[in-house]
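Course assignment 3, question 2. Fill in each field.
Student: A.L.
Task: Predict the tertiary structure for the chain below.
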Amino acid sequence: MITKILNIILILFAVYMGIKQGWAMVSGKPEMLQMLGKLGLSSGMIMLLGILTLASAAMILIPQTFVPGNILMAGTILLILVLELFHGDIKGAFIELPFILLNIIIIFLKYPFRF
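Answer field:
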């Protein structure tokens, strides 16, 4: 029971962060454009990354797409992490690590409402 509650909280947090970051990318928030722009991403690529992030957040909520949604979200985070490492931003890469781990833990704990 405790595991299910913890898993639900983790899922809601991951979905919230996915929506928050995805919307910031899609809406073209200056901070997001600046951060991802310094990694070499064009505004079109940032928009595409935002759409993928929003889609993955929605997919996490659906039992049939739970695992693919987590993998897609982890993949977008991994892309950003690798770009940060490529551009020498070690601190930025370390900031992304807990979010990838979050998706891995959520997959390990499985969808909480499946009977």
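Instructor remarks: The radius of gyration is 14 Å. The CA atoms of residues 56 and 69 lie 4 Å apart.
Grade: pending
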